[in-house]
Design goal:
Layout (H helix, E strand, L loop, with lengths): L1 H39 L16 E16 L4 E18 L10 E5 L9 E3 L15 E5 L1 E15 L11 E10 L7 E3 L5 E3 L9 E14 L6 E13 L2 H19 L11 H19 L12 H29 L10 H41 L1
Parallel strand pairs: 1-8, 1-9
Antiparallel strand pairs: 1-2, 2-6, 3-5, 4-7, 5-6, 7-11, 10-11
Helix pairs in contact: 2-3, 2-4, 2-5, 3-4, 4-5
Length: 382
């Protein structure tokens, strides 16, 4: 009998615990539902939380760079992947967490509350220039702080100067601004905006050195108004090691081989063939690497100028060697048949010495040209 009473007490206790937990769960659900009824659903999403420029709200922008996928020198564009976070404070969305069982933040669709729709990326050339949350989720905290996050593949304009290729570096980024400054009173806060690199994927061609966030004044040509723009810049530095070992080093080796054309003995018969082989190697090599060179008609890279200079020098070497061979074999004074053989031998020896001297002079001339060209290129890219 006593045992049955104990079992009855245990069963009653279990039922009470279950009922208590169910009550707490229902209370929590009811409090969340009450919160939406009291705060969220009472707001008209078409009405902004400001009346004039004096009561405008501040918008903070956080840009998280995921990766740089392409830098197009010809089109002057940069393609990258970003996580963009917009935050603002709406005083109409505040509540006391103690009144709703310590609910400090809720998530909902953005169409239930007001959200800025005039914030655009001014240097974006893709389809998505402006932000419109609509069906996207937003997070609202108890003190009216609203956070909106968006993943974006952006193709933005960027001034790309390739004159110092392959040692070039560029400052590119995104320019955020308010497209309707006279009706939508939104202010950007540079202090509480940031450029993040937490999830950056390394690029095999470009290295991200640093980032910066700057505020600029933009003069609207249509309205004449001055508005603030928030510029996010990333410093991109080209990884030049592959270009140096695959292009620059072979060109330097070929330029040195040009000098050995004047070292080959004149009587060997291989002098002109050796020069032509180097010249054709230059021409074929430049044709092959042409696809990897940045294509821009506005600013020609100094590296391209250096390669063309070396090709011209190689062509000049062929011409100079033709002059040497002409002097060596054909530059002599004609004599009558009655002339003595001794004089002919003397004239022949004199012409051969002239060919050898020309080889030395032309060697020094091409050496000076090579040294000056590489010094000019090194100074230009430094």
């Amino acid at each position: 009998m006593h045992r049955k009473i104990n079992l009855g007490h245990q069963t009653l206790g279990t039922c009470l615990v279950v009922l208590l937990l169910s009550f707490l769960g229902c209370t929590k659900a009811l409090n969340r539902e009450t919160l939406f009824k009291d705060v969220i659903n009472k707001m008209d999403p078409a009405i902004a939380p400001f009346e004039s420029a004096d009561t405008g709200i501040s918008v903070n922008v956080y840009l998280n760079l995921m990766g740089i996928s392409e830098v197009n020198e010809k089109q002057q564009t940069v393609k990258g992947s970003y996580w963009i976070v917009l935050t603002w404070t709406d005083w109409r969305l505040r509540w006391d967490p103690n009144s709703y069982r310590n609910i400090s933040a809720v998530q909902m669709k953005a169409d239930k509350i007001w959200s800025p729709t005039s914030i655009c990326i001014f240097n974006e050339i893709g389809n998505e220039k402006c932000f419109n949350a609509d069906e996207d989720p937003v997070t609202v905290s108890s003190f009216g702080y609203v956070s909106y996050m968006k993943n974006m593949e952006s193709v933005s304009q960027c001034t790309i100067d390739v004159t110092t290729y392959p040692f070039d570096s560029h400052y590119c980024g995104l320019w955020f601004g308010n497209i309707n400054p006279t009706t939508e009173y939104l202010n950007f806060d540079e202090k509480y905006s940031g450029f993040l690199l937490e999830y950056l994927r390394p690029n095999e061609v470009w290295d991200v050195r640093n980032t910066s966030v700057l505020m600029y004044d933009y003069n609207d040509p249509t309205t004449g108004a001055v508005q603030k723009q928030l510029h996010f810049y990333v410093h991109l530095k080209r990884k030049s090691f592959y270009v140096v070992i695959s292009t620059l080093v072979p060109v330097l080796i070929l330029s040195v081989l040009n000098l050995f054309c004047f070292v080959v003995p004149i009587d060997s018969g291989e002098k002109m063939g050796f020069c032509m082989a180097i010249f054709l190697t230059f021409a074929v090599f430049l044709t092959i690497i042409n696809d990897s060179m940045p294509k821009s008609s506005e600013k020609v890279p100094f590296f391209t100028i250096y390669l063309i200079t070396q090709l011209v020098i190689s062509g000049v070497v062929v011409i100079l060697e033709a002059i040497v061979l002409f002097v060596h074999f054909h530059c002599f004074t004609n004599k009558d048949d009655s002339s003595e053989e001794k004089d002919k031998v003397s004239e022949t020896k004199k012409c051969r010495m002239s060919g050898a001297i020309l080889d030395i002079i032309f060697f020094l001339f091409i050496l000076i040209c090579d040294v000056l060209s590489i010094i000019y290129y090194a100074v230009s890219v430094s």
